[in-house]
Amino acid sequence: CHLRYQDLQRFVYLSKTEKYEYLAKYLGFEEALQLQNNFRTFSNTLKTQMEQITSAIEENKKRIIAVIGELGNISEENILAYINSRLQKHGVDEIDTFKKIKLSKNALKSIVEQNPKTKELADWKELRRKLERFYPISSIKEKLLSIESIFNELKEDEKNLKNISRIGLYEKGIEVLDLEEDKSVCPLCDNQFEGELLGHITQKHEALEDLKRKFQKFNKLKDQLLKSLTSLALKIDSLNELDSELKDNQFQEFFEKINQLKINIQIPSGVFEKEIFGIDELNYSSSPWFIIMEEIISVNEETFRKVDENIHRLNEDEARKELTDDYTNLNELYTSFYLYEINEKKKESLVQLKSYYDELIDDYKDWINSQIQGKFDEISAVIIDYFNVLENNHAYIRRPKIKLLTDRDKAIELEVEFAGEDLSPAFKVLSESQINSFGLSVFLAAIKQFNTEFKFIILDDVINSFDSFKRPRVIELLRQHFSDHQLLVLTHDLVWYERLIRSFPNWNRLRFYGWDYTTGPKVEVGKDTFEQIQDDLDRDLGVEAGQKLGRYIEWSLQVLNQNFQSQVPFKILNEYTLNELFVPFKKRVKDKLTAKHKLFVQLDDFEEQIGFRNFCMHYKDGQYTSDEVQQIFDSWKQIEATLTCSSCNRYATYDSSTGLVKCRCSTLALNDNE
Predict the structure, then answer these.
(1) 78-95 pLDDT, tens per residue?
(2) CB-based contact 20:408 (threshold 8 Å)
(3) What average pLDDT score do residues 628-640 get?
(4) Which DSSP helix (H) or strand (E) runs through 318?
(5) HEC states along 135-174?
(6) Residue 264: is its pLDDT beyond 90?
(7) Cα gap 178→201, rounded to integer Å
(8) Which of 132, 281, 328, 596 has the greatest count of CB atoms below 10 A from its CB?
(9) Which letter does DSSP use for residue 199 in this model?
(10) Could you tell me the CA-to-CA distances from 202 to 216, 340, 651 in Å, in that order?
(11) Are 66 and 56 in contact, with CB atoms under 8 Å apart?
(12) 410 Ramachandran zone, left/alpha/beta (phi>0; psi -120 to 50)
C-alpha cells in the first residue's frame, strides 16, 4: 500500500461522497463501487430517454389535437371516429382499426388525383404544413462573427491555451495553501519552493483565468452553432419528404438552394465537432453556404405569401377545399398517431425497466453499505488506538469513527467525541493536524486489518501536515503497531529523518541527492548526523564537522529541555544560541539528579568546550583542529549515551507526577544512576 501526503490532504478536503468512494477503494470495494456507478449511470440514461420520449409524445399530441381538436383522451377510438366521419363524406369505406388507415389515405389520394386542381391544392397545403416546421430559422451571423474573433485571439496564445487544464490544479493548490501553515511546500509534489509559492500560483492562475473565460465562450458558441446546423439539416430532410411536383416547378430554385446548403454545412458541422487544437482556421461568415442560409432566412415571409396566395386561389371551390383539408389531415394523423402509439409503448417499457433498475440499485446500495459499515466496525477500535497515540495530549477528544450517512447515496462523515458529546462533521472541532491524524489512523488501520497477505507499506512524506511535536508520535505509532511490516518511508524533513534513524537504527537508509536525464536518480547510502560528522573528521574537515555538530547539539538541547521541562527564556523568533540552551538544561539536570550524578558531571566538563560553536561558525584566527572537534564530538556522544535508552533508543524524560527521569519503556532510569 502506498500512502502519500497528498492522500491525507484529499481525505481532509474531499466531499462526503468522495470520501466514501476513496475509503471504499482502500477497503477493497473498488469493483463493487464501479458496478454501482454503472448501475447509476444506466439509470440516469433511462431517465434521460424517458424525458426525451415524454417530450416526443407531447409533440405528437399537439399535432393530433391540431387536427381533431380537443376530444378527450387521445385514443384509437377517438381517432377512428374522426377518420370515419371524413371518409363517410367522400364515399370511402370506413375502417375498424387504425392499421387500415393507409388504405383509406390511398383511397382519398385517388379521389384527389382525379381532379388536378384538388391535387394541386393538397400539394400547396402539404407544402405549407412542412414550411411551418422548417421556419423560423434563426440567423447565426452574430455568433459566427463572435466565434471567429475569439478563435483568432485564442490561436495567438495557443501555447498558454494548452495549460488551461491546470487551472483546476492551481485553484486547488491555492485552496490547500490557504489552510497550510508552511506555504513554501508545494501541495502537489511536496517539494520546497524558493520564493513566495502562494503568490506564484495565484499569478499563474490569474494569467490563465481570462484565457479560460474566452475558451469557455468559444466552446459555448461552438456547441450552439453545431446545434443550429444540425437542426437545420434535419429540417431540410423533413422538407424534402414532400412528394409533389411543386419541388420541380414553382419551388425548384428554393429546393435547390436548401439542398445545396445541406451539402455545404457538413464541413462546418464537422469542424465544430473538433476541439480548438484541431481547428486550423475559422472563417465562415463570408462563405457561400452562409450567404445561401441568409438568403433562405430572408425569403421567409415571401415564401409563405406565395404559398398562401395559391391556397387562397384554389380554395374558392368549397368542396375541393374540404377534400384537400381532409386528405392533408389524414396524412398528418397517419404519421402523428402512429408515432404517438410507438412512443407510448416505449415510455411504458422504459418506466418498467427504470423501476426495476432503481429497485436493483437500492438493494445493491444497501448491500454495499452494510458491507462497508461492517468493515468500518471492524477497524473502529484500531482507529481509536492509533488516534490516541497521535493525539495523546487531548483528553477531551476521543473515539473517532467513520459514520455512514444512510439518508444519502454514497456519503460518509467523520465523527469524534468532544468533551463527552458526539460531534459530526469532526472538522467543526478538530484542527487540520488533528484531522490528518484521523486520516492517517483510518488508512493505517485499513492497511493493518485488510492487507494481511502482503505486509509492505510506503509512507511518502505523510508527516508534512503534522505539527513538529506530533511527528515523533508517528514514529511511536509505527513502533507499537507495525513492527511486523516492511516499511519504505520517504521524507524531506531532516529532523524527522534523524528521529527515524534514532528510533530504528537497523533500518536501511538511502539518500537521493539529485537526478539527471542520463542516469536517473542519484543515490547514496543515507547517513545520520553523527556519521556525517565522523566522515568530515576522517577527511580532516574540522570546521565543517564543528558546524554540523553545533547545529545538531542545538537541536538536541531543544528536545532535551522540552523532555526535562527546563526553564528556557522565551524568544518569539525561537532563535537560541547553544549556550542559551545548554545552561538551563545543565541546571535542570542538577536540580533533578544532583550535582554528583554522572550526567551532570559530563555536562559540567562539556561546558568548557561549547565555545567551539562560535569558532566553527565564523572566521577567526586559530580555528579548531579536527582532533579538537573529535574530542568535543566524543564528549557529546558520551552525554547522549547516558541520556539514551538502549532498548527504545529514546531520550530520558522528566515525569513531573513521579519526579523520575526515565525513558518511556522504563528500561533507563537516571534517578538510580549516581
Answers:
(1) 889 889 998 988 888 999
(2) no
(3) 93
(4) helix 318-390
(5) CCCCCCHHHHHHHHHHHHHHHHCHHHHCCHHHHHHHHHHH
(6) yes
(7) 12
(8) 328
(9) H
(10) 20, 57, 44
(11) no
(12) left
Residue 518: DSSP 8-state: T
User: Is this model's pTM higher than 0.85 or not?
Assistant: no
DSSP 565-588: T------TT----HHHHHHHHHHH
**Three cell numbers at 625?**
583542529
Average pLDDT over residues 41-58: 91
Q: Spell 376-414 as b/e; 16+ CB within 10 A means b.
A: beebbebbbebbbbbbeeeeebeebbbbbeeeeebbbbb
Grade residue 493 by pLDDT with cuts at 50, 70 and 90.
Answer: confident
Say which amino acid occupies 256: E
Return the H-helix or E-strand segment holding 487: strand 486-490
619 CB burial (10 A radius; 0-12, 13-18, 19+): exposed
pLDDT in tens, 266-275: 999 999 998 8
Whats the size of the chain, residue-wise?
674
Stretch 659-673: mean pLDDT:
84
- Annotate 354-418 with three-state secondary structure: HHHHHHHHHHHHHHHHHHHHHHHHHHHHHHHHHHHHHCCCCCCEEEEEEEECCCCCCCEEEEEEE
Cell numbers found for residue 490: 520517504
Q: Are 95 and 84 in contact (CB under 8 A)?
A: yes
The β-bridge relationship of strands 421-423 and 412-418 is antiparallel
> Which of 92-106, 125-139, 160-174 shows the lowest mean pLDDT across its residues?
160-174
